[in-house]
Amino acid sequence: MLSKQVCALSRRAYCSAVNLASDIKNARPFSEIPTMSFFKVAKGNLPGGRYYKKSMREMQQLFYEEYGNIMRIPAMLGRPQFIITFNPDDFETVYRVEGNWPVRMGLDSLTYYRDTKRQEIYGDLGSLFISHGEKWANIRSIANPILMQPKTIKRYVAQIDDIAKEFVDLMRKIRNDKSEMPGDFSNYINTWSLESVTAVGLERRLNLFDEKTHDENAKKLIKGIRDFFEMTVEYDGKPSIWKYYQTKGFKELLKVYDNITDVIMYYIELAMKEMNEDNSSTAETEDSVLRKLLRADKRVAIIVISDLLLAGVDTTASATLNTLYNLAKNPEKQEILRQELFTILPDKNSPLTPEKAKNMPYLRAVIKESFRTLPIVSGSARMTTKDVILSGFHVPANSHVGMQPVFALQDDKFYQNAQQFLPERWLRDQTEGCPRAGTSNPFTFLPFGFGARSCVGKRIAELELETLIANIIRNFKVEWHYPDMKIKSTFVNIPESEMRFKIIDV
Ligand code: HEM
C-alpha cells in the first residue's frame, strides 16, 4: 500500500519537476516572504504576548490568519531561519528536493544531550530520530530491514493480539457503575501502547496492566515519555535561551532524557542476560527485532530502541484514542465496522491472524479518516537541497521548511464534505455518491511522513492500532456523552479531555 502511494507521489513529482528551473527567475524574491520580525517573536513569546503558552495548533492558527500560506521566522537563539508553509503544492516541491539523506530539523535538545552528556552510549553513532547525513543513513539502513519487513512484524501479530485482549479485560475491570472509562483513560491507553511496543522492541512483557506486577522502571518510562513531548515543544518548538543559559526547566528536560536512557539500558541489559542464559533459541527467536539489533551492536540496540519508544508510544496511543472517539461520535460507522469484523472473525474472542488482518478494508479506512480529521503530528520538516519556488517565492537551497497540512486536511477544496467523518472516501470500492479521497492532493495526507525518512515504526503502529480497535469494537459498543474532545497540541496532538468512553458489551 505504501509503495503504491509512494509510486503515485513520485510520478506526480517527476511531472511537475519539468517546469522548475525556468520558473525560478520569475518568482518573487525570498526577501518578500511575509516575515515575522525578531522583535515580534520575542515579544509574542513573553508573558502576556500573543503566542505565550499557546499550543502548537493555536500558533498555527495565528500564523495562518496573520501571514497566509507561507511565512518566514528569522534565525534566532542558535536556531536557523525557518520557513513555514500551509500550502500542499509546496510540500510536494520540498519533498521532491529532499535528497537521498533527507534532513528534518529536529530536536536540538536531544542532540545536545546525546552528544555531550551520554557520549559513552550515543557518541559517534547516529540516531534515527535526530541524526542527519551519513550517520542517519547508516543506522536507518540497519533499522529498515528489521522494522519495515512484513515478515518480521508478522511474528508479533499473536502477541499484540494477546495484549489487546488483556486490555479489553482491563476495560471491563475499570469501568464505573455507569459503564464509563475513568477520566484518566488516556494513561491506560498509553500503558497499552508502551506494553505493545516493548513487547516488540525489548522482547519483554512489562505487565503494565497490573499495578502489582509492574516495576518502578516501567512507571518511570511512561512518565519520561510524556514529559519528553510536553517539554521539548518549549525548548525545541519555540524560541528558547537554553543554548546560552541552561534554565531550571531545561535541566529538568536533561534529567528526563537521563531517566529514559537509564531505564532502556536496564531493560536491554536484562534482555541480554536472559538471552545468554537461554539456550533454547530457535529460528523463530533468532528473528526477533531485539536479537537482530543486538547482533548489529549493543549501542545500536540502545539507540534504536530509545528512538522507537520516544517516537512510538504517545503517537500510537493518541491515534487509538482519536479513532475510538470518531467511532463513538459516529455510531453508524462503528456499526459498519463491527459488521466487517464479525464477518471475518465471527467469534469475538477468536485470535487475529495475519491472513485475517489483511482483509479489513473498512477498519483501515476508519483509521485513515481518523488521521485526516484528527492528525497525530502537527506537520513535518525538511531542508531543501536545491533552489525551489514555494507559494510563488524563490526559496534557496539549504532552507529549513516546516510543512503543516492541518488546514488542507479540513478544507472542502481537498476533501469534499471535509467536516464529515467518512471512512468510505478511502475505500477502493466506492459507495455511490460518497466523495473520494483519491481525488485530492496526496501530499495533504502523509500521516507517517514521506520517502526515505518516513516513519520507521509505521508497520508496528498499524498492527497495534488495528488489533486494539478490532478487539474493542468486537467486544463493546463505544459511546461518547460529553462535550467535544479537546486536543493538547505539542509536536504530537494528544487528547486533553478526560476520555470517559461509555462501553456496552456487544
Ligand atoms: C500512529 C502512530 C504513528 C504516527 C502517526 C507516526 C508518524 C511519524 C511521522 C510523521 C514521522 C516523520 C516522518 C517524516 O519526516 O517523513 C515519524 C518518524 C518516526 N517514527 Fe513514527 N509514527 C507513529 C508511530 C511510530 C511507532 C510505533 C514507532 C516505533 C515503534 C515510530 C518510530 C518513528 C521513528 C524512529 C521516526 C524517525 C524516523 C527517521 O527520521 O528516520 N513511530 N513518525
UniProtKB/TrEMBL annotation:
Cofactor: heme
Family matches, as CDD domains: CYP24A1-like
Binding site for heme: C455
Keywords: Heme, Iron, Metal-binding, Monooxygenase, Oxidoreductase
Gene Ontology terms, MF aspect: heme binding; iron ion binding; monooxygenase activity; oxidoreductase activity, acting on paired donors, with incorporation or reduction of molecular oxygen
InterPro entries: CYP11_CYP27_families, Cyt_P450, Cyt_P450_CS, Cyt_P450_E_grp-I, Cyt_P450_sf
Family per record: Belongs to the cytochrome P450 family.
Protein name as catalogued: Cytochrome P450
Organism: Chironomus riparius
Native organism taxonomy: Eukaryota, Metazoa, Ecdysozoa, Arthropoda, Hexapoda
